[in-house]
Amino acid sequence: MMVFRSLYSSIKKLALALACVLGAVVATPVYADASDISAAARSVVRIVVFSSAEGQQTIVSIGSGVVVDRNKVITNAHVVEQARFDDSVEIVVVPSDGTQSYRATVSAVVARKDLALLQLSSGALVPASIFAGTVSDGADVFAIGYPASVDVALEQSEADVLRPQPPVKTRGTISSGRTSKSVESLLHTAPIAPGNSGGPIVDACGRVVGINSFGSVANDGGAEFYFAISTRELAAFLDNQGVAFRTVRGDCRSVAELTRAEAELEAATRAKVEKEARVAAELQRSREGKVRSDAEHAVISALFRRS
Question: HEC states along the chain?
Fold first, then answer.
């Protein structure tokens, strides 16, 4: 019994060590948690475009954006279009929390992709994580941004719009990927409105999976759908501009799914350990039986020799 216990203990330790090594090598799925959406919202900003023509400051465009580096923000090209050609137009980036907003300039634009990169004149914000994998059809997604219809409903003034406040979050699903002649996009059902342009859609783990650009108009009670520029387009644009952005991989799975998978792995590991222990025990018993048999034969042989 002492040999069996020692052997079983050794096998169990070896199996656990192997599991730890495999766990370090294989990409671990990411947990989905409601707090991930709130964390992702910290990287979403409001984009306010002002015109100072004729000595009067007026808002000419409002949109959303997402921080891709500490001092760089991505948004839609159409949101900041007027700032590209008019020196009297200024861009203000308003974060989701804190006490101040920041001036920004257009650093790069690819109009046919509806993407624009903004450079903050000062300050630093929290960058988002960009998903580098493929989003599955039917996956849950959340649109995060600043729809103007909410500002109107809440009777927000210009001063209110320039004050940091949490973005609006809406939920939907991915319908499928769509590719037009100019841009690869994702079709989804998370409601957006004017003001959401340039803001992200994120998965249940809070990772950016697209940049909202436009939506379809429902006629005669038809369904509304919304389009987001894919992260593949986004990554190519940022790479061309030399932006060091954060990408992540791995499946986004619920806690229940991960708990079940971990339980199945643990059960499989335990079954393997027990099987190896049984084999070892049987081998030990066979050896002990042979030892006893050899001893008996030796005793019998000795008795015959004496007689």
Answer: CHHHHHHHHHHHHHHHHHHHHHHHHCCCCEECCHHHHHHHHCCEEEEEEEECHHHCCEEEEEEEEEEEECCEEEECCCCCHHHHHCCCEEEEEECCCCCCCEEEEEEEEEHHHCEEEEEECCCCCCCCEEECCCCCCCCEEEEEECCHHHHHHCCCCHHHHCCCCCCEEEEEEEEEEEECCCCEEEEECCCCCCCCCCCEEEECCCCEEEEEEEECCCCCCCCCCEEEEEHHHHHHHHHHCCCCCEEECCCEECHHHHHHHHHHHHHHHHHHHHHHHHHHHHHHHHHHHHHHHHHHHHHHHHHHHHC
